[in-house]
Amino acid sequence: MNQDGPSLCDAGGDVSTRAGTPAPTWVWLGMIGIVVIGFSLRVHNLLAQSLWEDEAASVNYAAMPLSVLLGTNVDSGNPPGYRAVLKLWIALFGRSELVLRLFSLLCGTAAIGTLFALGRRLSGSAAVGLTAALLLAVSQHQVDYSQETRAYAWLVLLTICSTYSLLRALHGGHRCWWAAFALAALLAAYSHYSGLFVLIGQGLAGVLWCWRLPDAQRLLRRHLVTMAIVAVLLIPEYVLYLRPGLLTENGYVQWQCHVNFYEFAYMLLHWTGGMLYAPLLRLENGLMQTLVVVPGVVLPLYFVWRGWPADRRRLLWVGVLYGGLGSFVLLTIFRALWFVRYNIAFQPLYLIGLASGVLILARRSRLLAGGAVLATSAVFLPGVFHMWNTPWRPDYRAAVEWIETHDPEHTSRVCVYRFSHHAMEYYLPRVSEYRNDRDELLELATRRAGEADGVFVVMAETEMGTSWAGLAQRMKETLTLREQADFLRLHVLWLEASGE
Fold first, then answer.
1. Res 21: pLDDT
2. In this predicted structure, what is the pLDDT of residue 212?
């Protein structure tokens, strides 16, 4: 019996969902409906924006020979696991924009169903599982990354699957659950470095599960042996990718920062309403940040402790979410590696705690519980609409179409700044050159304009911010401008050698 009060199995007349108990038909119908909603949100506007630099980089890395991709540190900021999976996906289905984004869409949709299973088994409540799945389905943060050719949707799915497998293994499941946990955890860690912090949380969760548990020596030994095996299998990641990349003196510090109250509050807003509510947070307003962070951290923990059965499932949830996220926060206090999207793997577990709170507050009746769930979803959903109405990815597709229309004979050269070359190589059927330094790009464009019938210079705001305008002015002073075209956060200058 739960000594802390009524469990969520009593909230709103919720059904019993003990392990092994089949859920009623209405639960599965509700789950199917939520998956359909999540899929619809993710497929809508899937191709409205072109691939941007990071997506195209995934495609270019996936095109490398497997021996190079896996055997060298081709990208200091990311391990190669996702790119290897994407390479197989491309080999099977091609590399059109639809196919490339379809993999993340399917992962994001599958995460909804698996989160229902995890939330139901953790809390002992089908209502919690359904509510958490619904919140994941309508989360702007999750919808956004389910529409990108990047590792995040895949990472979220693997995190949910590995945590579910660990729960089944610790709950006396067959040894195949230990194997499933190890496999999913390894894939997550090799797909994104934040998977390592999820693994730290899962390791802590297993220890907490066995803490003061009678006759737990055998279970604890299995857990520690499994974690040791996973750690040994992660040695190549350290040797090949982490040590020569992220762990070097300069590491992979570009737009990352040290964690602070503002950044943590910004993450919590992303996990709920998305970018729509971000303007409410001001960098200098410490009170507003406190009002977001303190309830955001404390209340889910209180809800879980108050509403779930008084057993060790609560400890597992705490270990994975608070232990894993806390280890990353601790690291980013000392090293500038914080970025809000890196923590996306922890959002599903956070939503389980939030779903528990929604149903605890509305435990008196099913009608009140349903109203609370819908009201919470209504807070999440506008963020998705805001995302659709405020596209931000540079429009490389339109830029390349403009270049090809104005230079169908390919007599002009193409020069781009930094990582924009990845997107240009995907869309443009000719060779483009790039430079990582502004002065070097100006020098390259000047030289190419003299060698050919003009040069196209491509600059993206995602790479340069507003400083592109200053470089563009310098180029206009050095070369003669034929024409300029401005697209969504992308600018193309068609220049020719000066007549002077």
1. 67
2. 82
The residues of the chain scoring below 50 in pLDDT are 1-17, 19, 500
At residue 196, φ and ψ (nearest 5 deg) are -65, -35
- Per-residue pLDDT at 20: 55
What's the CATH fold of domain 396-496? Translation Initiation Factor IF3 (3.30.110)
Q: What is the pLDDT of residue 245?
A: 80
pLDDT digits (tens, 9 = 90+) for 147-163: 999 999 999 999 999 99
Structure tokens at 177: 């659950």
How many Å apart are CA 304 and CA 311, to the nearest integer? 11
Token pair recorded at residue 355: 């779903």
Instruction: Give the strand order in the sheet containing 480-487.
Output: 433-435, 413-417, 455-460, 490-496, 480-487
Which regions of the chain carry the CATH code 3.30.110? Answer: 396-496
What is the Cα–Cα distance from 208 to 193, expressed in whole angstroms? 24
Q: Tell me the two tokens of residue 406.
A: 């104005």
What is this structure's pTM? 0.93
Three-class SS of the chain: CCCCCCCHHHHHHCCECCCCCCCCHHHHHHHHHHHHHHHHHHHCCCCCCCCCHHHHHHHHHHCCCHHHHHHCCCCCCCCCHHHHHHHHHHHHHCCCHHHHHHHHHHHHHHHHHHHHHHHHHHHCEHHHHHHHHHHHHCCHHHHHHCCCCCCHHHHHHHHHHHHHHHHHHHCCCCHHHHHHHHHHHHHHHHHCCHHHHHHHHHHHHHHHHHCCCCCCHHHHHHHHHHHHHHHHHCHHHHHHHHHHHHCCCCCCCCCCECCCHHHHHHHHHHHHCHHHHHHHCCCCCHHHHHHHHHHHHHHHHHHHHHHCCCCCHHHHHHHHHHHHHHHHHHHHHHCCCECHHHHHHHHHHHHHHHHHHHHHHCCCCHHHHHHHHHHHHHHHHHHHHHHHHCCCCCCHHHHHHHHHHHCCCCCCEEEEECCHHHHHHHHCCCCCEEECCHHHHHHHHHHHHHHCCCEEEEEEHHHHHHHHHHHHHHHHHHCEEEEEEEECCEEEEEEECCCC
Q: How confident is the model at residue 11, as a pLDDT? A: 39
Give tens-digit pLDDT for 384-439: 999 999 999 999 999 999 999 999 999 999 999 999 999 999 999 888 899 999 99
Gap between the terminal Cα atoms of the chain = 88
